[in-house]
Specification:
By secondary structure, the chain is α+β, with helices and mostly antiparallel strands. Helix content is 48%, strand content 23%. The chain has helices at 2-16, 193-197, 209-226, 234-316, 321-400; strands spanning 25-31, 34-37, 44-45, 51-52, 57-60, 65-69, 75-78, 83-88, 91-93, 96-98, 101-113, 123-126, 131-134, 138-143, 150-156, 159-163, 166-173, 177-182, 185-186, 190-191. The strands form 2 sheets. It has an 18-stranded mixed sheet that branches. The protein is elongated.
Length: 419
Amino acid sequence: MKFIILLALTLTMGLSEAGTHPHGAELFHSKGSVQVKALSTVFVDVEKGEFFTDGDIIKTGPNALAIIRFPDNSTLRILPNTEITIEKLAEPVEDSVLGSTNIFLKIGQLFINVINEEAAPIFHVKTTSVAMGVRGTRFFAGIDESTGHTELAVDKGVVEISNPSNKDHKEAIEAGHGIHVEEGKFTHPQKYDWVRSLDYNTEKKTIDVEKNKSLHLKKRAEFSKKRKEWVRDENKWNLHNKKWALQESKHKSNSEKLKKKRELFNKKRKEFNLRKKNLSDKSRSISLKSKALVNEGSQLKRKEKSLRQQVRQFKTGRKDPRLKLQISKKTHELKKEKIVFKAKRKALKDERTKLIIEKKSLIKKFKRVRSKKKSLKNTMDKQRKKLRRAKKRRRLIKKQRPKAPSSGQSTGGNTGGSL
């Protein structure tokens, strides 16, 4: 029985895992007061190793820090006096991600590092005034507690920012740029010194409160000095929008494949659970039959003992022919019962052998699934490494490529026009 339950758990974990942890956001590190509020409960303190799921509200106190790791290996660093809600978590399915992770930022500041090689829309951060679509990006998002303005700074990649109440308010914030959103209205995104001064390391386990305060003052002063009205660069926006539309269509088709895989997995899991239940029932039935046979064997031994005593009494006492007939009848019945008992014992032995064979076949099936999963993971890792090397080569080629001379300069002894 224990063997079956253990096998069931192992197989389920082996089939469903996609990454290093289950479907849930893990509190990777905490410092100071970090609390969580699940649905219809009060805030309670949490420690490292706790898992969060859809609907959980996380809050950090003064001088507190929390680092959360998501199922897709993205990380989130929550600064002091911050409150967020995990509205939805992406679901890991076979080394990929189904759906998206949605975070609502009520107050405070976050650093986010999204691991997303497909550059698909799998991570969203929302505030009361804006929504941020993240596609493999490292960035900062915060709400100024004195003004209530939303601030965004991008260190790597591109973030799409939009106002849900106004469809025309959409902008692509590139790496090295920051933007302030005043009551849902965008200001012009541009390069700021405070954007470069931020530490975007989402796994940093310490926090400098004084440095954060001085940086906040610097940020406010620089913004009031450089502030410009928002005018979108349509050419840049159209390029980003076209690229994102292509990525989104690829992500949708991939999601459909993942859904089918998940349906297949659920079907296999149902079949496995049914087989597990049948094995458990058979095991329980064999156990009950075995107990019944033990009792039956004991009764037969008692009958045999009683008959032996009667035979001894018959031999030593008066030889009554009627008594001899009774003893011979009882002996004949006992022999019949012994034959039936042996047949039952053989049937039980055969049933046990069949059960062992079924268990072995289930173990073999689990091992095949595990080896397939391992080979698939190795193949995926090789493909990722190839992709990284190709990207690296392209970057090096781009850097080494000589810049084209301007139209006003002469090239290779030619004066005037270009070749």
